[in-house]
Amino acid sequence: MILTFPALLLHHAATRPNGAAMREKQYGIWQTLTWRDLRTLVAHLACGLHAQGLQRGEHVVVIGANRPRLYASMLAVQSLGGVPVPLYQDAAGAECVFPIHNADVRICIVEDQEQVDKLLDIRSQCPQLTHIYFDDERGLRKYDEAGLLSLDTLVQQGQQLAQQEPDLFEREANAAQPGDVAAMFFTSGTTGNPKGVVHTHSSLLDRAKVGAEFDKLTADEDVLAYLPPAWIGQNIFSYAQWLVCGYTVNCPESSATVQIDLKEIGPTYYFAPPRVFEGLLTSVMIRMEDAGRLKRWWFGAAMDVAKRVGPALMDGSSVGLVDRIKYALGNLTMYGALRNSLGLSRVRVAYTAGEAIGPDLFTFYRSIGVNLKQLYGSTETAVFVCLQPDHEARADTVGVPCAGVEIKVADNGEILVKSPGLLKSYYKNPAATADVLTADGWYRTSDAGFIDSHGHLKIIDRVKDVGRIKGGANDGAMFAPKYVENKLKFFPFIKEAVAFGDGRDQVCAMVNIDFAAVGNWAERRNLAYGGYADLAAKSEVIQLILECVEKVNADLATDALLAGSQISRFLVLHKELDADDGELTRTNKVRRGFIGEKYAPLVDALYGGLKQQFLETQVKFEDGRVGKVSATLQIADARVFPAVKAAA
User: Fold this and answer.
1) What is the pLDDT of residues 81-131, one digit of tens each?
2) CATH number belonging to domain 378-461
3) How far, in Å, CA of 153 to CA of 133, rounded?
4) Which of 108, 226, 304, 428 is spaced 20 to 30 A from 544 at the CA atom?
5) DSSP 34-54
């Protein structure tokens, strides 16, 4: 197998030059870039960077959404032996300072004016940043900054050098070796500064190949690239596997048009975190609630059949003739139209990862004929550790170890992994590298879990977050906050949750409502509200969330291990948790410790038995302004249930 990114590009350009490599929607029209066109673009960009003195091993930051010329820029950097470092496009400028310093970056390639402004604002803090190249020139024509140039200029410089040295590009591209560093991804940094995860061509492409073979991916797949390229999940699905398989990657016009573009493209291979699948289902349920009585009745009846029959059909199990006929009728009149409305009518394989997905949500998609599965992995493992086979997709596990992977469980319940996809190291951080890689080559995942009787991996929580209740009726009981939070988030009305309880006598939680879902719920009940904070404070909404919390408690009561993690008290936050306010990482993971400190008065009120608590909170707006929001939050008590003893 070809195990470098530039070599794969050359292979596709030589064997299928007229095949579609990428599509980009511009002004409502899909534009196609062939493999021949892509090779030419990459060659000119590489020659231009060579003229600027890019050295082997040098890091180049890339910031922006999924754009063909940014993908080509990453390939150009790799062709010269450089290391692309994608950063999140929605990160504040201050968040880019550490990666730029840490990786000694002098060249940045960015998408547009927003990213240019961000880098110019921090340039005084990063004097080594000498070159900034931009793709989209709108708004930038009158900028006069040293080293600020368009990618068009870089391409023109590269064309001139390529004419002088025609073999320069291929000579440099063919010099790459599988063991060379291919990319660096910065972790989300839930505690302290992010760490640069170093991956080689071999580690990334080996895992991409294993994933492709597992699901029998071919060059005929269509993929929609809409998640941040800085997230390794997007990078593997739309970059590494793209080059391994040679399929077509489609780039949406903008974040606002993703749903429209999804329907137009009809991807065959689709990847999204649970929150995206939740959002799609929420939009469907909102539309159905606004539909006529007959349509609502038929939807309910058809979905009852789908939930009973659909998963069995997806798993290849036997289904009676009558049920098959009923399902076929439902598919003709409801499920097919529903898949088409969601943009998933052509999906052959769909994956979700990053967080646990609710069993009802998981079952819904499989019920209507979407082959939704789960996988397990991380930035450090190049994503693919466990995958679910087509007929073994279950909501409560993350699949079986894929080819080349070994898994064992440490005495403390931590999952340990051996894989060809493991990181080479954390950049300039040998201490952190030693913390996660054992002397005999095992990677410490920091996740607690176990292998079930079917050989599937089951994740409980982060090892460091698994705690114990101290005092009260559940003294000594296990507390798994992420497990509890995910159960709350299974409800469409709850967007985010933060649970506390380690070392305390009971579990308490803070909840973010889903503004769209709860707003629609309120409107159908003629409940007026004046914005997020007003809606979140409504007594009717608090009662709605209370019902969700008590359903979670009833479910937890049946779990012998986690019955003590039932939620005793909760409140609905007056603002959405936000990465710009430091409450979430850029991959939307809760920074529980930070939230506990920031909202200490609320935590104290929850555990102090108070019924309400006033709080004023500083927030950062999208335009960079800082303001404050204040509210008196109501605190509610929830019923907890006796643990249900397992049958003998």
Assistant:
1) 999 999 999 999 999 999 999 999 999 999 999 999 999 999 999 999 999
2) 2.30.38.10
3) 9
4) 304
5) EHHHHHHHHHHHHHHHHHTTP
